[in-house]
Amino acid sequence: MTTPPRPSTPTDEKELKRREKELRRLESENGPLEPSFRYRALVNAVEAGQDLIELADRKARFALVIISVLNAVALVLVVRGGDAVIPRTGPWSRVILAEMVVYVGVTIYYLFQAIEALRPRGTTAAAEPLPARVTPGESARVLFHNDVVQRDPATYRGLWAELRMDNLNVELADQLHTVSRINHTKYAALARLYAGVRVMTALLTLTLITLAAFHLTS
């Protein structure tokens, strides 16, 4: 004699739904990102990278302001100081002249570092030909402005009509890689630039100390 199945109760149904919800949550947390989540994460990462580019540019401009102040002090010493401040003959003059020459050379070198930090990057189109149709899992190259203007409007609209989420995600991943590479290069040049600010400050301070020593001993 078989035992009839026990009818399910509301409590059992709630427990089953709770377990199913927990399984879906674990799958969502441990499995691959959904395309929409991946898209939002990539957009946020690209925007954060672009913010870092703007921050690097502001820091480079601030370093140029400091260099301008240092150069103004050096210019006042050379142009306005005259013989009363800077000796024109003797061993002291040769020491101060050598310090000034080194200072000018260092200034020129680190101005090139400022140019390296500020110059535009990522403005050239890729060498590969533009895709003529949308291919699943590949970049359609519809976001970068140089890629956009190389297509006629009808072709460009047609690509967007067929575009898939994975196409956007692949292209955004490529853009994030490009932005990250730009930031890596920019911040390396920025570190050299601020090292130059320290060197220039030290050289100008050394020149002022040399001038002070000359006037104390003369």
**Shape summary:** elongated
| Average predicted confidence as pLDDT | 83
H-E order? HHHHHH
What structural category do the secondary elements indicate? mainly alpha
Annotation, overall tally of beta strands: 0
Distance between the termini: 123 Å
Helix content: over 70%
**Strand fraction:** under 5%
Radius of gyration: 32 Å
Oligomer, anyone? single chain
Number of helical segments? Answer: 6
Uncertain runs are: none
Tally of separate domains: 1
Please give the largest β-sheet. Answer: none
Short description:
75% of the residues lie in helices and 0% in strands. The chain has helices spanning 10-30, 35-80, 90-118, 145-149, 153-162, 165-217.
